[in-house]
Amino acid sequence: MAVITLHKERLQYNFERLDYFFNAKGIQWSVVTKMLCGNELFLKEILKLNPQQVCDSRVSNLKVIKKINPNIETIYIKPTPKRSVASVVKYADISMNTDINTIKLLSHEAQKQNKIHKIIIMIELGELREGVMREDVVSFYNEVFQLNNIEVVGIGTNLSCLYGVLPSTDKLIQLTLYKQLIEAKFNRKIPFVSGGSSVTIPLIFQHKLPAGINHFRVGETLYQGTDVYNDTPSKLLKQNVFTLKAEIIELIEKPKVPEGDFGSNVEGKTFSFDEKEIGRTSFRAILDLGILDVDQSNIFPKDKNIEFFGASSDMIIVDLQTNKKKYKVGDYLEFSLNYMGALRAMNSSYIEKVVQ
Fold first, then answer.
1. Which residues, listed in sequence order, are joined to residue 286 by a DSSP beta bridge?
2. Are both 145 and 282 inside the same structural domain?
């Protein structure tokens, strides 16, 4: 069985560095837990770090979080599905929203549950994912302010996740100006300007973050130790908070080139081979891991001599060449993972989760 391991000392190191950094700048930050896919073992490790807030895009994950710590403040970070309104009010203290009719349903449900439900209204700043159009912001807030049991606690935006539109000083200044406009027009205080995510962190080091941005939502940089803006490892943080290992279930010296007529494989791919490889052999290892669990483009062998041959639904085949390290059936091969690799692996029920 394949195993994904959370290295808690690396996680704690990254958390403490980020927490110190944000506190020094007067910024509140929320840990994004969606990559953990509701795994209770790993969520407990996050909550041991005592974050101020955690946020997730799945209500079922928030339910697990509230089970572990009912007092932690939780944020639901995508527009609320209408069929999930009752659960969002129950398990999310704050939700991010863009649809007035959905917010009306949240208001009605909050009254039923005798709660004040807090919301952050997301504004479209060019990424074209979730967000109220800028010309509609004032009228939107006006309508929301009329609703019972709804407290508007923030204005926010999302950048980089869909088309890779990077945050900029100009875009984030726009967000702070909308906050000032809403406060002045309606005589209401908007505590959070949630314009920050992992990709925005480098703007702070470059002294390009507008002073009004006071709330960040951070996942990838915490777990991967990455500078997301520049797509490079951060020199200030530890990488490989998560590692993956997969068991070798077959290891045989075989030809490098398949025999027979070629069609498409299970992914619909077709292959061609270099004629120079005909007659050559190498040691091929089959791993107890497949496309169902990970995409091989998102995992990276620690042994740099290993190359991928290909994958099927539940097996990955790697080239060990001459097998200098004398791997054998039953041995594990270890991999590092990027964010999408860790996300896919965490979502697989066929991969064991371990804390080390």
1. 250, 317
2. no
Would 3 be classed as within a structural domain?
Answer: no
Last residue of a domain, one of 210, 233, 256: 233
Does one domain contain both 61 and 138? yes
Considering the domain architecture, whether residues 177 and 272 belong to the same structural domain is answered as no
Catalytic, out of 8, 25, 34, 66: 34
DSSP states along 200-256: GHHHHHTT-S-TT--EEEESHHHHH-EETTTTEE-TTS-S-SEEEEEEEEEEEEEES
Domain of 310? 242-355
Distance CA 227, CA 223 (A): 11
93 and 191 both lie in a single domain: yes
How many CA atoms lie less than 13 Å away from 31 in the CB half-sphere?
28
Query: Per residue of the chain (356 residues), what is the pLDDT tens digit?
Result: 899 999 999 999 999 999 999 999 999 999 999 999 999 999 999 999 999 999 999 999 999 999 999 999 999 999 999 999 999 999 999 999 999 999 999 999 999 999 999 999 999 999 999 999 999 999 999 999 999 999 999 999 999 998 899 999 999 999 999 999 999 999 999 999 998 899 999 999 899 999 999 999 999 999 999 999 999 999 999 999 999 999 999 999 999 888 877 777 777 777 777 777 787 899 999 999 999 999 999 999 999 999 999 999 999 999 999 999 999 999 999 999 999 999 999 999 999 999 99
Concerning whether 34 is annotated as a catalytic residue, the answer is yes
Q: Are 83 and 59 in contact (CB under 8 A)?
A: no
Q: Is residue 109 part of a domain?
A: yes
Tell which of 215, 233, 251 closes a domain.
233
